[in-house]
Structure formats: structure tokens, C-alpha cells
Amino acid sequence: MLFILILMVIIFFAIHNLAGKKRLKDLQMLKAKVEKSRECPDCSEKVQINAKVCRYCHAKLAPLSVAELECIQTAYLKKLDRLDEDEIMS
């Protein structure tokens, strides 16, 4: 009887550990998908922050100012923090 109880506890912790690893991997994948991007002023599509030409409408993009880069960095970090908070809440 004790053997069955110990076996059940071991199985429970093994399953719990596997589920935790999957959630961590999912969180890492979500974080990898978060991009630093900006909107094209002509077509409003998201493009990379260092793009010189929009890949959708081919409009020329002006270089970003330091203030705009800081704003994008702040938004990027907030998205990553939000993912961490969502992971803690689940």
C-alpha cells in the first residue's frame, strides 16, 4: 500500500514538473515573438525599427529620433513585463 502511495506521489510530481517546463517554454516562445517595431505613417503596418523603406507600401521612412527609440524600448519592455505577469497569474 505504501509503495502505491509513493508511486502516485512520484507520478504527480513528474507530471507537474513536465507541465511547468512546457509553460516556461511557451513563455520563452511568446517573448521571442515580441518585436521592437514601429508603424508606417502611410499604410499603418508594423515594420522593423531600423527599416528605411516600408516592406508593404514601399514608402520611405524617416530615421527615428532618440526620443522615439526610447518610447519603443519602453513599450517593448512593458510587453515583456506583461507576459511575465500573465505567467505569474496563471
Shape: rod-shaped
Number of domains: 2
What is the radius of gyration computed over CA atoms, rounded to a whole number of angstroms? 22 Å
Major β-sheet profile? 2 strands, antiparallel
The ordered H/E elements are HEEH
Uncertain segments: none
Query: Would you tell me the overall average pLDDT?
Result: 81
Q: Using DSSP, what is the number of strands?
A: 2
Q: What share of the residues does DSSP label as strand, in percent?
A: 5-15%
Share of helical residues: 55-70%
Could you tell me how far the N terminus lies from the C terminus, measured between alpha carbons in angstroms? 35 Å
Describe the structure.
By secondary structure, the chain is mainly alpha-helical. The chain folds into two domains: about 1-35; about 35-90, no CATH class. The protein has two helices and two strands, in the order αββα. The chain has a two-stranded antiparallel ribbon. Helix 1 runs antiparallel to helix 2 (about 65-90). It is rod-shaped and about 75 Å long. It starts with a helix and ends with a helix. The model has no long low-confidence stretch (mean pLDDT about 80).
